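Q: Could you write out the predicted structure for this multi-component system? I'm mainly interested in how the pieces pack against one another.
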Amino acid sequence: MAEQPHALPYGVGRFSHRFLILLAVLTGVVVWGLFAYAHQLAEGLVVKGLRDIGTMGGATWGLYVAFVIYFVGVSFAGITVAALIRLFHLDHLRPVSRMAEALTIIALILAASCVVADLGQPLRGIINLFRYARPQSPFFGTFSLVVSGYLFASLVYLYLDGRRDAALMARRPSRLQGFYRLWAAGYRDTPAERARHERVTLWLALAIVPLLVTAHSTLGFVFGIQSGRPGWYSTLQAPGFVVLAGVSGIGLLLIIAAIMRVTLPEGKEVHVGIFRWLGTLLLFLTVVYLYFMVAELLTTLYTGTRHEAEISRSLLVGEYAWLFWGSVTGLVLGALVLSLRFLPTNVQTRLPSVSPRWPVLLLIGALLLTGLLALQGLDLISPFSATTARWLASVAAVLALLALVLSLPYLSRNLVAASVIAGILVNLAAIGKRILIVVPSQTHGNLLPYGTGWYQPTWSEISIIVGLFALGALLYTLFFKIFPVMEVHAHEEGAA
Amino acid sequence: MARYAMVIDLDRCTGCRACMMACKVENNTPQANFWMYVFRFEEGHYPNTHIWFMPRPCMHCDNPPCAKVCPVGARYKRVDGLVATDWDRCIGCRYCEVACPYGVNYFNWKKPSKNYYLDWQAKDVQEVTGGAVPPYRNPDLDQPYGAERRRTAGGGRLKGVIEKCTFCVHRVERGQKPACVQNCPLFALHFGDLDDPNSTVSQLLRRKPSFRLLEELGTEPRVYYVGGHPPSSESHQIEEVRVRV
Amino acid sequence: MRTVLTIAMVLLGFFLQFITYFFLTAPWDPVYSNPRIPFAPALFILGVMLVFLAAVVYELLPDRQVQ
């Protein structure tokens, strides 16, 4: 057929050296995570920092459950954004539509793997849930609606949405032609087919939005309807979950969109308008979440029972204060960075510009310190005394804050960079908040006087989580090496 | 159908923890798992202190939060009131444990055979025992019980499943009392049928005022306490038991 | 034909969800712990999937007058 192999758009099928190195690194991390999981399978869950609530003074749900919630939360952004684009005809956002859909699917796969990693009997879990699952358990919704319904609906949406592009790609000779033909399944881009597709996506979007709210609320109800755990038993739990899900998901989507903008040859198609729109949505959701948080804290502090008050105290001034205030700072700073663009232009131009070298240097210093402290926290090495560690933690926090302050003028002029920084901040905050939802109610929320407990994650838990992140990144990059990340333009494929 | 319940007389309990010991021997529970646990409380400040003891088995609630949340029906309520754990079905998600306000669930974090107090295979132990390994494991524990014939008795089964107090289902079904009740030297623990007006538990509950733990949560526990008061913010454990596996 | 099939699939999916949720899985009676028929939850999920699969059928069903 065509002798000159016309390169496929959006870097599909092109593997540069840098990309191969990235793949190798990610695969290495995934293998390390698998090793940690094999270790856990062989030894039992004793390799984790979790222990029984009560006389063992531990938390029985820890990082895994926190990250299940986080991953499911991230999946929120994807299909919501895709459905919003379809429902409200936000056509200028179309370039991120497929990124968002793929993000949903991969985040849900990660969430499911995270659940399996948490089970004491993973094989039984997979079989018995299908066999015996009971609707009375809040897990039923998580398992049937989130993992099957939501994942399946997203797959269907991605598949149908991609058919037109697959058909266009299939016209070009490449090694993947057969795959595209299979995906396109006879799509010829006739007006009738296009109209049908429009109708289907409308109905799918209409069906997905309620499913989405239900699915995320279900996960909130896993915690929200447990009257025996102070700190969990709250009506705001489910709405809070949905909103924080949006925060973390849209934050991550912003980061991904920025990466695509920088790395792809056609990156400019992810235009600034997208960042502006998503940034505003993120800002709105962050503020709503902060409002929910304050409302909930005020209630428990003012009128809560002794145990509720104890949990709130452990968050505000106690054992978890560093994580709580760190997360709140992340959310507030994220909102601040996002609202920089509302500064009047004359103020923006009048801000003194700082060489980006200084914030980056400060940030590297802060990260190095944090890494050292984390190693000490895991009891792998302990070069400092407890007091020194506390001081160093404050130093790291001050360095990071200083870095952010110094980069503010730059961020106020560069919307994309501001979105990425905000995305990172709110995602770290979201992870922190997820951990704070899961853990303190178990260690400090015993209604019988068992005394307070403690939970410290081990290297094995963290390795598995990091491995899951690497797996997600691997699947994501590989998927967009075989399928275009944005819509293929009909005029662009030319030689048809 | 019987309506089993336990009555604990706090006036009689001296905190000897014989019930904890009996439970461990009867059910082969691994290290650090206390299906029966006795709180030793101190109230007030020196010299005006008051010391009292409170045994805490599983409450076998009539509205069990653990059974409600179990995703696969491994934790279930039997018609005679026992809350049973089917370790053949448990997937190890530990939802029952976070749902339970009493903290009575114990997960097998590692292989139970590697998690007993004494490692009979260890060299220095074998020097003393002359290589003898006690063969004893009550065969009753391996039988299926209840109308549904599910394997719910005993502990120390598999790694990665939840276990908790069974009210010694294997003894109760034969008309015996749970091991803790049987072994209490001071008759502080009583077990029986609430539907039988002549049973010890019915008589005790008629005679003395009683309370149940965390009644306000609506869990409707089947364990009644007489002759004392519920623990309050004043009650502190004398030494907190903090054993981890 | 296309529309009828799709609507039928959606209705069947919801019907399957309804009967499995209320009648085939474990009833809300606290004493009851087993599903009335085994693998009823799998049927429920099948119902959820059927509803969304209807969209694929609607789009992929070939026209009758294929040249």
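A: Regarding packing and overall arrangement: Residues 191-224 of chain A form the longest helix (34 residues).
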